[in-house]
Write a structure and sequence with these properties.
CATH class of the largest domain: Alpha Beta
Distance between the termini: 12 Å
Oligomer: single chain
Number of helices: 25
Structural class: alpha/beta
Bound molecules: adenosine-5'-diphosphate
Number of domains: 4
Largest sheet: 7 strands, mixed
Number of strands: 26
């Protein structure tokens, strides 16, 4: 009897989704690192049913450089034979031919259901194969169970058990790009556009794209509009026009319906608008564009996390575990029993089909309903007569971050909805001191949703003691009842100082909220800040180009990212772009580490590889600067390879905000206006930080700031993402000969011995 290494099969099945390649790469590399042989099953279940060339082993380098490609390099298909038992019997036999009894299945709920069925039937299929003489009894005994890890690849984001599915964020990028483009032409002609997006039973794409695109309406399957919706829609559009809006865009999910279950098509919406408003209306159906294109940074990093976790899961899986779904919940990998999630998901779809809309909406989770109600208020602010009008000042402080304008627009519109007067405090706190205060109307912030930059102006300076008197006078003079600070660490520092001086300057004792906006993602009270996702996408796009430029030579790149004293951007960029190394301020750089990297590089290039990518955070180390690191590598490289440095600079702060940052900015602005309105109504002087912790909105008192911030290093004392460091290392280099020897010396996991057919 020979002992075999664990063998894992990986397939992508059903509809393709951007990011599937990053998952495949992570499964293959993590599998090999953990001591397994990994096989691609090509064209979904078809490769499994057909066997032969349909299943092939993948090596470390076979999955190099694929994560930036859309679609799936191992193919996907819909396979009718696999739905039949005979097809699944052939599939089981073909898997055993290669000794595979562990599978990572990346697909939608159909594909995952198929995988579960195969694992349920495994016993009886093997018995049939033994009876027919197609496999031996020993083979059957050696593989008593088929262990499954499922990953959801679906652009619709329609799965219970994971906050996001692979491809949804990239699809949102495509839709938002299209909506931005349509908005500019619509505004030029004062036209109305109806845009249809995917989502038969899940309105996630339509709803989030409507928020990200600053659209007027979203028609989604889970929230069908009531009778008379056509009049309501037209009245809202007219109202918008009267306030100076030049374009109107309505997003329709392909599964949108009315309360009687009758379909609301884009054409129907167009017809209603044309007859009721007499306006020229155009329809755009986005279709497959949504599945295409380069995966977003988030889809790459999340798919990498999931693939890595799936391989890890299968290495330790036992037949008793049952099939597992590898999802993400609140930025962390989360495992749930596969069929529980699939069945719950089917139940939600059924609720939609049966007309139980409120229950379907609730089942999609709290934030889904929250986004839906934000869209109504933000698209059509209607001041509530009962609210007590107050004057809320909005100010930026800290470095520029894409999404600042988005947050201001949302705050202004939602503030108006609550009946407040909204004020722009221009050019930061120093502008306020000098009286740069102006009222912001809805028309003032028109078109700011997708606009990069910060039109109110932002400053990096921090409030000094000598500014306090002038500041408190300005607050009194302009009758500012509350302050919303949208900015970075300098802004947090400033609000903290204002808070501490309340006893001396009573004018400062007003409600204040900090809304996190910084590309560095280094703010307390939140796991993510507005602008970081946009910066990451900019970095990852730049690295894609840099990689392409290096195809011919043997070259090491040292790429410098921003991030201040926080390594978030560098680490996440390295993970998304598949870099070999990330140098972070949290760890510093040592000569020994550089020496080790030179050795890695030399080995690699001698083996014939062409590229070695390192990402260095701008303040990773005071002495080993990007230039010094590059020179050391160059000096050591001799004729073997050359070295180039690329300091990415301000392209990371510029550009229009990503859809994720727009939605985040909007959610945080809504929570801020809520918190300020409540405080003002109760006469409280709350000073708090709004944030997203574990995926949920939270407020943390400004009084806790000192405990949460490492002021010396200007970053949070605890950083949740540092745990991902290990993945960059594990996926960068194949195991060394010594590591391989250690692996084979350790006992093979149960169920990996085989005597036949492998
Ligand atoms: P998705 O995985 O994107 O939901 P499908 O529902 O088309 O896409 O499923 C993809 C493939 O998964 C199908 O073509 C089939 O091979 C397999 N499959 C789906 N549902 C089942 C099922 N109930 N039993 C067996 N195989 C299935």
């Amino acid at each position: 009897m020979t002992t075999h290494r664990t063998r894992i099969g990986v397939l992508t099945s059903g509809g393709d989704a951007q990011g599937m390649n990053a998952a495949v790469r992570a499964v293959v590399r993590a599998g090999i690192r953990f001591g397994a042989d990994v096989f691609a099953i090509h064209e979904g279940y078809q490769g499994m049913v057909d066997g032969g060339a349909g299943i092939s082993q993948l090596g470390w380098d076979d999955v190099g450089g694929i994560q930036q490609r859309g679609g799936t390099v191992i193919g996907t298909a819909r396979c009718a034979e696999f739905r039949e038992r005979d097809g699944r019997r052939a599939a089981a036999r073909n898997l055993l031919t290669h000794g595979i009894d562990r599978l990572v299945v990346i697909g939608g709920d159909g594909s995952l259901t198929g995988a579960d069925l195969l694992s349920q039937e495994w016993d009886s299929l093997l018995a049939e194969l033994v009876a027919a003489g197609e496999i031996t009894a020993e083979t059957a005994q050696a593989h008593p169970a088929l262990m499954i890890a499922g990953i959801v690849g679906s652009i619709d984001n329609d799965m219970v058990g994971t906050d996001m599915t692979i491809g949804a964020d990239s699809a949102l990028h495509r839709i938002t790009e299209a909506v931005d483009a349509i908005a500019s032409t619509a505004a030029s002609h004062q036209r109305t556009f109806v845009v249809e997006v995917m989502g038969r039973r899940c309105g996630y794409l339509a709803l989030t794209a409507a928020l990200a695109g600053g659209c007027d309406f979203a028609l989604i399957p889970e929230a069908p509009p009531g009778p008379g919706w056509e009049d309501e829609m037209c009245a809202a559009l007219k109202h918008g026009r009267s306030l100076g809006r030049r374009d109107s865009i309505i997003l329709v999910a392909e599964g949108a319906r009315d309360q009687h279950g009758a379909r609301i098509s884009a054409e129907l919406v167009k017809h209603e608008l044309e007859t009721r408003l007499g306006e020229d209306t155009r329809v755009t159906i986005l279709g497959h564009v949504q599945r295409g294109g380069t995966p977003s940074a988030f889809d790459r990093s999340m798919a990498t996390m999931m693939g890595y976790a799936a391989a890890e899961e299968l290495m330790s899986a036992t037949p008793a575990d049952g099939a597992q779904l590898i999802g993400v919940r609140r930025n962390r990998v989360r495992r749930t029993p596969l069929m529980r999630s699939v069945n719950e998901n089917k139940a939600v779809s059924q609720l939609v089909d049966d007309g139980h809309y409120a229950r379907a909406m609730a089942a999609r989770g709290e934030s889904y309903a929250e986004l839906h109600s934000i869209l109504r208020a933000i698209a059509h602010p209607q001041p509530t007569p009962t609210s007590v009008p107050k004057r809320i000042g909005i100010v930026h402080a800290g470095g520029l971050a894409a999404g600042m304008n988005t947050a201001v627009r949302a705050a202004v519109r939602l503030g108006h909805d609550r009946g407040h007067t909204m004020l722009g405090l221009e050019r930061g706190f120093s502008g306020l001191r000098h009286g740069h205060v102006r009222e912001l109307t809805l028309a003032d912030v028109e078109g700011w949703t997708g606009l990069g930059g910060a039109d109110l102006g932002t400053r990096r300076d921090v409030i000094e003691p000598e500014h306090l008197y002038a500041l408190s006078r300005a607050i009194e003079t302009h009758q500012i009842d509350a302050v919303l600070m949208i900015g970075g660490i300098d802004g947090y520092d400033s609000v903290h100082r204002l808070y501490a001086e309340r006893a001396h300057y009573p004018a400062l004792a007003i409600p204040m909220i900090c809304l996190p906006a910084s590309i560095d993602n280094n703010l307390p009270g939140t796991e993510l800040s507005v602008g970081a996702d946009t910066a990451l996408n900019a970095i990852v796009e730049a690295i894609d180009r840099i990689k392409q430029s290096a195809m011919a030579a043997r070259r090491c790149f040292v790429i410098e990212t921003m991030g201040g004293d926080c390594g978030y951007l560098a680490l996440m960029a390295a993970l998304s772009a598949g870099a070999e190394q990330a140098y972070l301020p949290e760890e510093g750089i040592t000569l020994a580490a550089l020496q080790a990297d030179v050795t890695r590089m030399t080995d690699r290039f001698r083996e014939g590889r062409r590229l070695f990518l390192t990402v260095r955070s701008e303040r990773a180390d005071d002495q080993y600067t990007t230039d010094v690191v590059s020179r050391i590598f160059e000096a050591e490289g001799g004729d073997l390879y050359d070295v180039r440095q690329a300091v990415l600079g301000h392209l990371q702060q510029g550009g229009n905000p990503s859809p994720f940052d727009r939605v985040l900015a909007t959610r945080l602005a809504a929570a801020s206006i809520d918190a300020l309105t409540t405080a003002l109504a109760r006469g409280e002087t709350t000073a708090a930080m709004i944030g997203l912790e574990h995926g949920a909105l939270v407020t943390t008192p400004v009084a806790d700031m000192d405990e949460l911030v490492d002021w010396e290093n200007r970053r949070p004392a605890k950083q949740w993402w540092l745990g991902m460091r290990r993945m960059v290392r594990d996926l960068a280099d194949p195991p060394t000969a010594a590591e391989l020897a250690a692996q084979s010396a350790s006992a093979a996991p149960a169920g990996t011995t085989s005597t036949n057919g492998s």
